[in-house]
Task: structure prediction
Amino acid sequence: MSEDDDRSPPLDLRCGAAPSINRARNCSGEAVSGSGSSTSSSIPASVPVTVTEYQSQYPDQVLEIVLENVLQFLTSRRDRNAASLVCKSWWRAEALTRSELFIGNCYAVSPDRARGRFRRVRSVVLKGKPRFADFNLMPPDWGAHFGPWVCVLANAYPWLEKVYLKRMSITDDDLALLAESFSGFKELTLVCCEGFGTCGLAFIASKCRQLRVLDLIETEVTDDEVDWISLFPEGETCLESLIFDCVDCAINFEALEKLVARSPFLRKLRLNRHVSIRQLYRLMVRAPQLTHLGTGKYGPSEVAQRQGDTEPDYIAAFAACKSLVCLSGFREITPDYLSAIYPVCANLTSLNFSYATITADQLKPVICNCHKLQIFWALDSICDEGLQAVAATCKELRELRVFPMNAQEDVEGPVSEVGLQAISEGCRKLQSILYFCQRMTNAAVIAMSSNCLELEVFRLCIMGRHRPDHATGEPMDEGFGAIVRNCRKLTRLAVSGLLTDRAFGYIGKYGKLIRTLSVAFAGDSDMGLKYVLEGCPKLQKLEIRDSPFGDAALRSGLHHYYNMRFLWMSSCRLTRQGCQEIAQAMPRLVVEVIRSDDEEETDNYVETLYMYRSLEGPRHDAPKFVTILR
Amino acid sequence: MERLLSFESDHLRATELRLGLPGSDKPSVRPKNNKRASSEISQESKSNSCASNAGNDDERDSAPPAKVQVVGWPPIRSYRKNTLQVQAKTSESELCRGMYVKVSMDGAPYLRKIDLKVYTCYPELLNALENMFQLTIGKYSEREGYNGSDYAPTYEDKDGDWMLVGDVPWGMFITTCKRLRIMRGSEAKGLACV
Result:
């Protein structure tokens, strides 16, 4: 359920990547095939090698063999990156043993280059468009095509098992190629992607016989009117996770029911809104072993209201799911049916009500039982009162997200500083918060900064632009300043409300671990951006919109841009010339100037600047509205 | 600098509720909120902020100027917006249908239905009931209920209990009222004495 989580998903290191230890090497490090198959990667590390063999070779080789075996255990890509920089032989050994390939920007490196370095990849994570594309700030067809990647992957990694794509543009043909090319393919996760339809899903369902995970999260899928659910192979499946709540197409329920019945390993199931609650009941009865459940439409259908129809025992169905720890869905909710989930509340660690328009009174009887809850997403319809109830019970809460029911600016908001304060006092272990509100005070934000010292992610969205502290009329500088000063583990920050350069001064001075920063409608002058670029050494992703930062500020980051994944600046005060200077000063930076489709470039200011480091230079698939500056 | 989409302002004006005689186009003067789309003016807005925030609550009553919406703000993904919109439409259509509750009157052969959403306070509701059933209900007093009249309005709340109409604030009443029953005065006396 991690929306916009930029950490790579947990993946197992496959033992199959163990290198052959019978391979001999000469002193310049060239791999020479020795006795035994040098290309096979299935020889376990414990196969004994005779002592005489070792003694006759250079001692370096022993070290290399040891290294390869040790490197197997390095899973973190950051550790591996560091190891690969030690020396050439470490670089080589690491490249041979890396099985999880993580590419944070699909344009930073070409598929061929990736394939050339890493020979034994089992899992690929690819990320494409920058996050602000989600909010219609980027015209469609900008890029991030999966096509070129899947072609290369198909040739290079026949043993590929897992693909995770985020904000990529995927076609049905891409999915067809994927399905055909990897006989052992196990996991496909698509987050915030688009470009394909149920046709593509049909390929995956029918051809990937070993499929364990098919997760579609906030991905647009067009309805090609293909019954993809019925195309899963007959007989017992390996399915462990099937998430399709965002696939807004009617589902062949009989086929789904049969699929669930023949999937004994199924643990995660998230349905779309076309599955009624009665149908949900039938599925739950067949799959009481579920750990993660996303309901479809959570309310009676017209059918149920016919006289004489008895409702199924929903409470019993939930009670039978003894392993259930994560609940979500609840679309088009009829709150009366919420009582059915009482039996599972005590075990829940994750509850997603962010599509459920429920009030505080409707939330309370549920939440008061959720003592183990760690992740809670909700709509602001629960009001400050609902948040107070959460704070009173959920002492283990790690992550809170409060979304607005009414995403407009000038409306009365049901949540405010009161809710934030309550959460900060009740949920001391909080690590991550995303909070949409109409009004806020510095005092509440400061309170959170001193109460929730474990905070790593603080994203506050005061929906009214330039809105100051509701109580004092002051800018929100001090609140955000306290967050960066007190929360020593903070890595991600999103600011809002009325902010002066002072806020950015605080961020630059104290935000030493910040990797992602989102800024909108904030700051007074170039100094704001300068503080950040000069002060935050770990900054990787900086996205700014509608703030008065210009060319001088841009220049102040020249020392740092190669260390960043990207910089996004839209509707700021950048001129084409200013951006050009950066492009000329930094040859390995791709500097894209993006216009909206129909606008001529009459304004002196650049509408959108998107720049990122890349080993490949300007991309060849840039559409007409993108100009790459050289 | 920003891309702005304008609302259908004419549409809004046609449906707005205003104080004033029908036909008069001039809205009552209210302190306008200095909501501006450009970030250049943040300095000014600091000083205006207090006034403009105070004006926020009133803003809905005054004639809304052609509202501008900024692209991509607040930062909610369209998937989420669309999902909630679909749900809002379903519940909106329910809202349009109104909050109809059954009304029974002791001795009447059949029940009636009224839309609670149409009324804004108890006197309006009681007036409507009096008209509908051709009777007098009389004045409410906390101490004596509807003493002095032949009938007393009661309602069933969401817990299934029968309550006297008028005890709780109107807002709470319309969310908890499931059905109404107009009791005969003699029976109702028992209710008021409790």
Observations:
- Confidence is low (pLDDT under 50) at residues 1-9, 25-67 of chain B.
- The interface with chain A takes residues 1-3, 33, 35-37, 39-40, 42-43, 45-46, 49-50, 53, 56-57, 59, 67, 69-81, 83-84, 86-88, 90-91 of chain B (CB under 8 Å).
- The longest strand of chain B covers residues 100-105.
